[in-house]
Each structure stands twice: as structure tokens, then as C-alpha cells.
Design goal:
Belongs to the short-chain dehydrogenases/reductases (SDR) family. This is SDR family oxidoreductase. The chain is of the alpha/beta class and 259 residues long. Helix 1 links the parallel strand 1 and strand 2. Helix 1 runs parallel beside helix 2 and helix 4 runs parallel beside helix 5. The structure holds NADP nicotinamide-adenine-dinucleotide phosphate (NAP). The site of NADP nicotinamide-adenine-dinucleotide phosphate has 28 residues, from helix 1, strand 2 and helix 6. NADP nicotinamide-adenine-dinucleotide phosphate (NAP) binds next to helix 1, strand 2 and helix 6.
């Protein structure tokens, strides 16, 4: 399927590994030139080179921390005129509600709410002027179904979701869509870290923790970055212009709701 994206440009934040990389690769496959970002320059450049070699698109890399004001300024400077913005950052650590103080919440808000809002605010006006744009925010299934040990994530992502619900409807008339992708468990480093945490807390092996988690997912497995990226690319496609302010759950059926 030709997604109608050949020659478009995208900034994909936090994309040297995992779900961000899945999105970058799927967009590259559709012919999109990329600006990729992560903190670690070596893994970022390796991921970028693999995409250049595989898909033949132009890829530039910007190694910086997307959760800081400096990092955001660097990214905005590099990506002022992009057609597509994929917002992503690492997720907050798990813990107990009694442990988190103000600084923990500020860090979570910076990473998973205020960073995407800053990039949207800087980059979407240009998209509106040009009459076309796509923004996809990687959030979490925790927006629909809270994960108690990830209270920092539940809180920050709920804030971003509220912002997107209103803002997406303010920019839709100018050809710009903003939507959220909500991953359930996917086989990435983040999932491995979460499984390690469960194993340590429950005195079981990481493999046992994974089997236990799979038993809670109707699909019986973890999602893949490729599946996730393909959904992102479709949301960015010419065919998705009527999808506005939605929260698309990719969770193998784990969230048990009718709608
Ligand atoms: P991952 O495999 O750990 O990959 C994270 C990527 O983001 C890496 O490329 C990392 O590179 C980059 N990154 C992290 N912090 C960054 C920062 N401050 N600035 C720039 N780049 C940064 O994680 P993932 O599984 O793809 O998860 C992506 C997001 O989805 C996270 O917010 C996570 O909480 C959420 N999520 C994931 C799952 C899942 O099952 N995987 C489920 C629900 C929600 P550097 O470390 O070099 O910066």
C-alpha cells in the first residue's frame, strides 16, 4: 500500500531503539526522510545508518535529551519544517505511590507531557501554514487502564491526553492531525526492564515474569516494534486525515473494555 508519504520529512523523537525506532523504520519504508533523536549518539547513528542502507532515505541524527529545554530547542531548530512529528521519550520508573515526591512528578511531566507539548507548540504552526501535518504521540495503555506501579506514567500521560483532545480539534481545520498511540506491552528494552522489576519483586525468574504477563494478554504474546511502527505510519498517511484526537490502543486485547 502506498501511504502517499514519499518525500515527506519526519522528526521521530527517542528513536534509536524500541517503539520509536519501529516508527522511524516504518516511515522510512514509506519514503519519508528522517530526523532521528536519542541521547546516546552511537546507537542513534547505527540505527540511522541501517535505515539509510535499507530504505535509501535521507536520515540526519540529533543526539540530545528531548526532556530538557536545551534538547527541545536543538530539535526544534533542526526540525522546524518537518511534515510529521512523532513524540516519544523514555517512560518513568515503576514504584509505590508512597515513594513519589514533587521532583519525581516534575521529571515525569517534563518527559511525558511537557516535552511533546513544547514540540507540538513549536512545529505545528508551520504545518498549519503549509496546510498538512501529522503528529503522533507515543503514550501508553495506562491512559485507558491504569498500571498501579507506573503511577508517574499514568499521571503524566493523562495530562498529555487531555491536551491533545482539545488541541487536535483546534488544528484539524488546517490539515493537521494529532493522535496518540497507546502501547500495551511490546518486546523492547523497556519491557525487559519492567519484567526484571517484577522478577525481583516476586522472587521469580525474568522468563517466569514474562510467561505470567503473557497470560494476561489475549493475543498471548508481546507486540513488536514493527507492528507498532506500521500503525504509526498509517496514522501519518494520506488516508488518515479524518482521524483526529484519537487514542489508538495496541495491546493484544489486554485492556478489557468494550470501547
Ligand atoms: P526503549 O526500548 O527503552 O527505547 C527508548 C528509546 O528512547 C531509546 O532509543 C532511547 O535512547 C530513547 N530515549 C529515552 N529517553 C530519552 C530522552 N530523554 N531523550 C531522547 N531519547 C530518549 O523504550 P520503548 O519500549 O520503545 O518505549 C517507548 C515509550 O513507550 C516509553 O515512554 C515507554 O514508557 C512507552 N511504553 C512502552 C511499552 C512497552 O511495552 N515497550 C508499553 C507502554 C508504554 P537513549 O537511551 O540513548 O536516549
Amino acid at each position: 500500500m502506498d501511504l502517499g508519504l514519499k518525500g515527506k520529512t519526519a522528526l521521530v523523537c527517542a528513536s534509536s531503539k524500541g517503539l520509536g525506532l519501529g516508527c522511524a523504520r516504518a516511515l522510512a519504508e514509506a519514503g519519508v526522510d528522517l530526523i532521528m533523536n536519542a541521547r546516546g549518539a552511537e546507537a542513534l547513528e547505527a540505527a540511522a545508518q541501517d535505515i539509510r542502507d535499507t530504505f535509501g532515505v535521507a536520515v540526519t541524527t540529533v543526539a540530545c535529551d528531548v526532556t530538557t529545554e536545551d534538547g527541545q530547542a536543538t530539535l526544534i531548530n533542526a526540525a522546524q519544517d518537518v511534515d510529521i512529528l512523532v513524540n516519544n521519550a523514555g517512560g518513568p520508573p515503576p514504584g509505590m505511590w508512597t515513594d513519589w515526591d514533587r521532583d519525581d512528578f516534575i521529571a515525569a511531566l517534563d518527559a511525558n507531557m511537557l516535552a511533546p507539548i513544547a514540540l507540538i507548540k513549536a512545529i505545528v504552526p508551520g504545518m498549519m501554514e503549509r496546510g498538512w501535518g501529522r503528529v503522533v504521540n507515543i503514550t501508553s495503555q495506562s491512559v485507558k487502564s491504569p498500571i498501579p506501579v507506573l503511577g508517574l506514567s499514568n499521571s503524566a500521560r493523562a495530562g498529555l491526553t487531555g491536551y491533545v483532545a482539545g488541541t487536535s480539534r483546534q488544528v484539524a481545520g488546517k490539515g493537521v492531525t494529532i493522535n496518540n498511540l497507546l502501547p500495551g506491552i511490546h518486546a523492547t528494552d523497556r519491557a525487559a526492564a519492567l519484567d526484571k522489576g517484577v522478577a525481583e519483586a516476586e522472587g521469580i525468574t525474568v522468563e517466569e515474569a514474562k510467561v505470567k504477563r503473557c497470560a494476561t494478554i489475549p493475543a498471548g504474546r508481546y507486540g513488536t516494534a514493527e507492528e507498532f511502527g506500521a500503525t504509526c505510519a498509517f496514522l501519518c498517511s494520506q488516508y488518515a486525515g479524518f482521524i483526529i484526537g484519537q487514542n489508538v490502543l495496541l495491546d493484544g486485547g489486554a485492556v478489557n473494555t468494550t470501547m
